[in-house]
Specification:
Layout (H helix, E strand, L loop, with lengths): L1 E6 L3 E7 L5 E8 L11 E2 L1 H18 L1 H4 L4 E6 L5 E3 L9 E2 L7 H9 L3 H5 L8 H11 L1 H6 L2 E3 L1 H10 L3 E3 H4 L5 E2 L4 E2 L1 H6 L9 E3 L4 E4 L2 H7 L6 E7 H8 L8 E5 L3 E7 L11 E4 L6 E7 L3 H11 L3 H6 L11 E3 L17 E3 L7 H25 L7 E4 L6 H11 L3 E4 L6 H14 L3 H4 L5 E5 L6 H19 L3
Parallel strand pairs: 1-5, 5-14, 9-12, 15-21, 21-22
Antiparallel strand pairs: 1-2, 2-3, 4-7, 6-8, 10-11, 13-14, 15-16, 16-18, 17-18, 19-20, 22-23
Helix pairs in contact: 1-7, 3-5, 11-16, 12-14, 14-15, 14-18
GO molecular function: ATP binding; D-xylulokinase activity
Pfam families: FGGY_C, FGGY_N
Organism: Ruegeria pomeroyi
């Protein structure tokens, strides 16, 4: 048996997987983030350990015999977070998370530094790890002076499980300290961020083993002695493993809290100016690129909150897909990444009329999110990515209207997988299978069975093409407003 353990921002999810990759059961434990100041987002790493323990113990209580046969545990987790350890391995301060924007000035300074984009393959976004440490050096110098090691969130779980400090390529690629093409820490990038190589954990590929679970902890969690912890991958890289997106032409679009459009790449093809992320994949010798929008279903949930209606109720009121609505929505409620790299821009409704109702607002919101994802697709195509079709995943895909709209806006067929586990936790378990057994990732990380394919509406393609062009032309005007 194998375990996939996924550390998200809102909770930890553990799945128990049979040798053939099918899921026996899963368990979850929730997490909360703290926001002590505007733009700040932090979590206590000890809360991650408590949640991981709760999820694993729940599986052990329900399946003691199966847990006793576990051979490997793979990890997945939220990217970019800074877990700071002192020389004794103790946590110095709460972890600064991926959605924390306090280091925007430090990110801009690093991004302007010579060779940083060339080596990292990316714009330095405020959410990345390097600017967080630059902020710490300036604003919390005593804490900065104590930093002996910097770990990423899931790698802190590996440290707890094994006592070994390490990381892997797909997560390290989001720090702005990694030479993403060479798959190694860059002395030049570390110097730019006033960091040292000895403060970095050892690197391995996502299928590499970290070490065995500590015997005392294994007994506490209902695991046998000798369970190997496998390095795993960053959340989106692991999700790509979970849906079989490994090779050129493979990709998915995710309608989650944020929106992701991911393309697997066989080589390193960065284009930082596009604000496309170019990261190492969790499997050796491969990379992936993705466009990211910061508020996808978050935009719909925001509308649900202010209207007092649940999100499924809002989308159910839309009826059948028709021509673009009269209201335009810019989904920049938390700023935007691809293609604008703009932490300061905020969202807007345009063309509101007294005769309109909440259905018009809902239609505008799902259209605006879809148009923003089309921006990401155009940016990916500019790097040479060829995506003939996409797998559609995430909570937003439960709305048939939204999936049909998105297929039409992207101009691509969208495959809906059969119900079941297809996310980062499954990808982590698949990485564990490969790491422990030596199996070929291409044989283990297969695409899920497709329940249905949603094709673009040919009769609406031209109308939505024009509507997207109008949407794209609006950003500069919104940005120019005081």
């Amino acid at each position: 048996m194998f375990i996939g353990l996924d550390l998200g921002t809102s909770g930890v999810r553990a799945i128990l997987v049979r040798p053939d990759g099918s899921v026996l059961d899963s368990a979850e434990a929730g997490l909360q983030a703290s926001h002590p100041h505007p733009g700040w987002s932090e979590q206590d790493p000890d809360d991650w350990l408590s949640a991981a323990r709760a999820a694993l113990v729940a599986l052990a209580q329900r399946h003691p015999l199966a847990m006793g046969r576990v051979a490997g545990l793979g990890l997945s987790g939220q990217m970019h977070g800074a877990v700071l350890l002192d020389a004794a391995g103790a946590v110095i301060r709460p972890a600064i998370l991926w959605n924390d924007s306090r280091s925007f000035a430090e990110a801009a300074e690093l991004d302007r530094t010579e060779a940083v984009r060339d080596l990292s393959g990316n714009i330095v976004f405020p959410g990345f790890t390097a600017p967080k440490l630059a902020w710490l050096a300036k604003h919390e110098p005593r804490s900065f002076a104590r930093v002996a090691k910097v770990l990423l969130p899931k790698d802190y779980l590996a440290f707890w499980l094994t006592g070994i400090l390490g990381s892997e390529m797909s997560d390290a690629a989001g720090t702005a300290w990694l030479d993403v093409g060479a798959r190694d820490w860059s002395d030049r990038l570390l110097e730019a961020g006033s960091m040292r190589r000895d403060q970095m954990p050892d690197l391995r590929e996502g299928t590499g083993t970290v070490g065995p679970v500590r015997p005392d902890l294994a007994a506490d969690l209902g695991l046998p002695d000798g369970v190997q912890v496998v390095a795993g991958g960053a959340d989106n890289a692991a999700a790509a493993c979970g849906v079989g997106a490994l090779a050129e032409g493979d990709g998915f679009v995710s309608l989650g809290t944020s929106g992701v459009l991911l393309a697997a790449r066989n080589g390193f093809h960065p284009d930082p100016a596009s604000a496309v992320h170019t990261f190492c994949h969790a499997v050796p010798g491969r990379w992936y690129q993705m466009g990211v929008i910061l508020a996808a279903t978050d935009s719909l949930n925001w509308l649900a909150r202010i209207t007092g209606a649940k999100a499924p109720t809002l989308t159910a009121e839309l009826g059948a897909l028709g021509a673009p609505g009269p209201v335009r929505f810019l989904p920049y409620l938390s700023g935007e990444r691809t293609p604008h790299n703009d932490a300061a821009v905020r969202g807007a409704f345009l063309h509101l009329d007294i005769a309109q109702d909440r259905t018009d607002l809902t239609r505008a919101v799902v259209e605006g999110v879809s148009f923003a994802l089309r921006d990401s697709l155009d940016a990916l195509r500019a790097t040479g990515a060829d995506l003939p079709r996409l797998l559609a995943i995430g909570g937003g895909t439960r709305s048939r209207y939204w999936v049909e709209l998105l297929a039409t806006v992207l101009g691509l067929p969208l495959d809906l997988p059969e119900q079941g586990e297809n996310g980062a936790a499954l990808g982590a378990a698949r990485l564990a299978i490969c790491g422990v057994t030596g199996a070929d990732p291409a044989q283990v990380m297969t695409r899920p069975a497709v329940a249905e394919t949603i094709d673009p509406r040919a009769d609406l393609l031209e109308a939505y093409e024009q509507a997207h062009a109008d949407f794209a032309a609006t950003y500069p005007k919104l940005k120019a407003l005081p």
